[in-house]
Recover the amino acids of this structure.
């Protein structure tokens, strides 16, 4: 139905609760005709409501103004009359402005039912009304229209961000049953994931490591050396979405990884009661249950809370390797008046793997092995226990003139205890004799205690100059990391026969201290960035960061009384610049270019026992981005070049002096990584979601010789679903394939290699009613045998497996 834009009847039909909480409260408005940007600012001040809009929605438009004693929603509708912009309710005091449909950009616009931003039907039934306007939960979308601040701190949509950023939404995680962070990263464009055989994963992008994880924007670090890496073992049940930035991250992280960073966005409480119960049953005795309940604690929703619980118990396709995991998450959020929001949360994950994954990758003579996928490398009595706690606090304070002050803090504590016997390859060779099967075991016990504290305080808002709206962002952040690690080794014989041991190994009669390792990391910095608009269709993004950095890493061997300092690195006033430009060709297409510095201290030692100098370099990126179908479909193509000096490369055949198994590294100058990334995510047609990407990446040293050959040159990741109506009920069918080109790991005396491979997956979900649904996922449809990690200890990918899910939402 077409409604005249000048009519007061333009107010859409609202839920009764929203009508009483906002629209029925009359306010005296007096806003003269002016630019729409200025009019909306005045409306926010006079109404006390929060109004959000994607960049570019308001630019160049004029408002007719509004005056009189009116309800807020009615006043807003009159203010938007004839502008080609309409609005969607977020909650009783918040709205989002969006472009009207293209077919109705003239004097009249067609308004369908109001869709709540971040709300709608849940993927398995249920309605979402979140206090987080950018929530992806319940949107049925594989992308987001909401701004992201992960790249620069500025609130930029994906199309406006001059770097490559991917968002894995709640719908995507539910459709593919991506239940761990590593599951998500395996499906993320441009990300390469390896596993060393323990509970440690290596994450890389664009030839560089990804060791920075954020929780709601607050930085934490990953330190692989002691295998205490809780971030990669986290469960996804408590996250609304996961944002992955690829490329240099120094503007936001200070000592930034050249590969990128991962930002984990937690679920937030909703203003209406909602929740779900879900159970999963799958191959290898996989059992899992989830519960999630959220809603107001007082009438009106000014105080609200949410709780999530999960329990999982499963064997695996590997002999004598199983996993148990439990998760609890609680969050409470309150509106303190019309302009202040506070939030506090705690999450706890208990992770109990038993045994050890992976197989011997090579024999001692350098020949590559070909063991069955069911083979594993650990004794059946071994265990590796993780207890991870996160405590978070947040404050959001709206200021005059649409400025915002945010303060977030995250405190992580990790306790790890291990007691294991597993096949022990050397980082230089292997201990497994091909003829006899004789090998050595790492029989050890120990503990690690990790503490991380992070604080982010940010101030952002618009600046009006020369007839354009610019945006400024200032922040201070603090990150402190402490890790204390100690291990003891068995005093008994460690020899065994890998062919006949059947994961049986005698528990040792005694242990002797083997090593201790101490890490201390602290950085604090100030950041400033700006989105400047010299022209209506040009955004120039400039930024810089000053960082103070301290790093200590000390390793000692009690038996010999020797110790090695992996560096007492300090940096003061390190400046990291950032620059980008985005040119809007029209409302759908943009071209962009960006530059960022790289500065990353290292902990590796060379063959002389000296610490490697920090990695320094530059990241250049150009590309195209598109947003279609009212920004529910995002696409991008990026070309990039990363130039780095002092990159740590395996110094094959050399150990650190005085050690028996610590691999030496050498700094490589002039390392150059070039690549292409293309991806598309979102709704192609009503009911049809698609996520597809192609990545090409090659790293060469100063002589032009290719390095990092264990990272595939080319990858394709494809997944799609379509929602049908069968007997008036929704049926969703989906499928996809991940293809990876050939890779190999070169050593001085041998090579581990595999050819290209493809893994196909399928899913189906039927919704019996608005609350109850059942789904099934079939993974590795053609039962392809492949390695997810190749080294002296290698790890196979999962064989064909199935998982069934039943979900009840309310």
């Amino acid at each position: 139905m077409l409604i005249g834009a000048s009519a007061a009847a333009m107010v859409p039909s609202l839920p009764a609760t929203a009508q009483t909480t906002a629209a029925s409260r009359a306010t005296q408005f007096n806003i003269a005709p002016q630019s729409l940007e200025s009019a909306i600012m005045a409306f926010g001040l006079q109404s006390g409501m929060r109004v959000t809009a994607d960049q570019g929605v308001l630019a160049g438009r004029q408002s007719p103004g509004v005056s009189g004693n009116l309800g807020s929603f009615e006043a807003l509708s009159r203010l938007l009359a004839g502008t080609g912009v309409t609005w969607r309710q977020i909650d009783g005091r918040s709205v989002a402005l969006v472009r009207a449909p293209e077919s109705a950009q003239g004097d009249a616009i067609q308004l369908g039912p109001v869709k709540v931003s971040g709300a709608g039907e849940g993927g398995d039934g249920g309605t979402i009304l979140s206090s987080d306007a950018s929530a992806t939960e319940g949107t049925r979308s594989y992308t987001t229209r909401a701004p992201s601040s992960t790249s620069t701190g500025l609130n930029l949509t994906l199309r406006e961000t001059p770097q490559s950023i991917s968002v894995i939404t709640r719908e995507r995680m539910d459709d593919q049953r991506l239940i761990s962070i590593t599951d998500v990263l395996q499906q993320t464009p441009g990300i390469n994931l390896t596993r060393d055989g323990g509970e440690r994963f290596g994450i890389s992008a664009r030839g560089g490591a990804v060791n920075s994880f954020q929780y709601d924007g607050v930085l934490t670090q990953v330190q692989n050396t002691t295998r205490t890496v809780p971030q990669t073992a986290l469960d996804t049940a408590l996250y609304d979405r996961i944002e992955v930035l690829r490329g240099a991250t120094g503007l936001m992280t200070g000592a930034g990884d050249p590969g990128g960073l991962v930002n984990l966005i937690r679920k937030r409480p909703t203003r209406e009661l909602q929740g779900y119960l879900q159970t999963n049953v799958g191959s290898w005795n996989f059992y899992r249950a989830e519960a999630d309940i959220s809603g107001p604690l007082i009438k009106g929703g000014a105080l609200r809370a949410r709780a999530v619980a999960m329990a999982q118990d499963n064997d695996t396709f590997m002999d004598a390797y199983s996993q148990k995991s439990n998760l609890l998450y609680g969050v409470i959020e309150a509106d303190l008046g019309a302009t202040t929001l506070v939030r506090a949360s705690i999450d706890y994950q208990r992770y109990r793997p038993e045994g050890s994954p992976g197989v011997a990758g090579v024999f001692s003579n350098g020949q590559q092995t070909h063991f069955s996928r069911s083979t594993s490398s650990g004794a059946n009595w071994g265990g590796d226990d993780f207890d991870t706690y996160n405590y978070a606090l947040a404050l959001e304070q709206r200021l005059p003139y649409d400025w915002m002050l945010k303060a977030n803090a995250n405190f992580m504590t990790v306790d790890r205890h291990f007691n294991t016997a597993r096949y022990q390859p050397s980082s230089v060779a292997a201990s497994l004799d091909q003829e006899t099967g004789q090998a050595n075991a790492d029989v050890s016990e120990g503990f690690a205690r990790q503490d991380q504290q992070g604080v982010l305080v940010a101030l952002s808002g618009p600046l009006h100059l020369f007839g354009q709206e610019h945006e400024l962002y200032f922040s201070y952040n603090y990150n402190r990391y402490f890790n204390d690690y100690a291990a003891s080794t068995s005093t008994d014989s460690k020899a065994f026969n890998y062919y006949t041991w059947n994961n049986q190994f005698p528990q040792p009669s005694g242990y002797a201290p083997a090593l201790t390792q101490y890490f201390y990391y602290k950085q604090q910095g100030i950041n400033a960035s700006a989105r400047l608009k010299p022209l209506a269709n040009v955004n120039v993004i400039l930024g810089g960061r000053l960082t103070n950095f301290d790093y200590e890493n000390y390793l000692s061997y009690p038996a010999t009384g020797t110790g090695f300092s992996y560096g007492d690195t300090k940096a003061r006033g390190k400046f990291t610049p950032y620059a980008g430009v985005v040119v809007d060709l029209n409302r759908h297409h943009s071209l962009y270019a960006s530059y960022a510095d790289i500065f990353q201290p290292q902990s590796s030692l060379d063959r002389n026992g000296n610490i490697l100098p920090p990695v320094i370099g530059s990241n250049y990126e150009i590309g195209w981005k598109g947003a279609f179908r009212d920004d529910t479909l995002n696409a991008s193509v990026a070309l990039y070049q990363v130039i780095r000096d002092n990159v740590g490369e395996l110094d094959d055949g050399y150990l650190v002096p005085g050690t028996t198994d610590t691999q030496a590294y050498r700094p490589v100058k002039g390392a150059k990584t070039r690549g292409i990334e293309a991806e598309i995510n979102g709704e192609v047609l009503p009911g049809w979601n698609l996520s597809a990407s192609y990545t090409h990446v090659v790293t060469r040293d100063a002589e032009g010789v290719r390095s990092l050959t264990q990272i595939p040159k080319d990858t394709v990741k494809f997944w799609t679903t379509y929602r049908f109506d069968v007997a008036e009920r929704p049926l969703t069918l989906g499928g996809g394939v991940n293809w990876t080109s050939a890779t190999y790991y070169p050593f001085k005396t041998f090579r581990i290699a595999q050819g290209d491979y493809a893994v196909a997956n399928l899913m189906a979900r039927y919704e019996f009613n608005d609350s109850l649904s059942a789904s099934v996922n079939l993974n590795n449809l053609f039962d392809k045998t492949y390695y997810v990690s190749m080294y002296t200890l290698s790890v196979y990918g999962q064989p064909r497996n199935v998982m069934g899910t039943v979900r009840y939402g309310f």
Notes: Residues 52 and 96 are 5 Å apart (CA to CA). Residues 1-24, 103-129 have pLDDT under 50 and may be disordered.
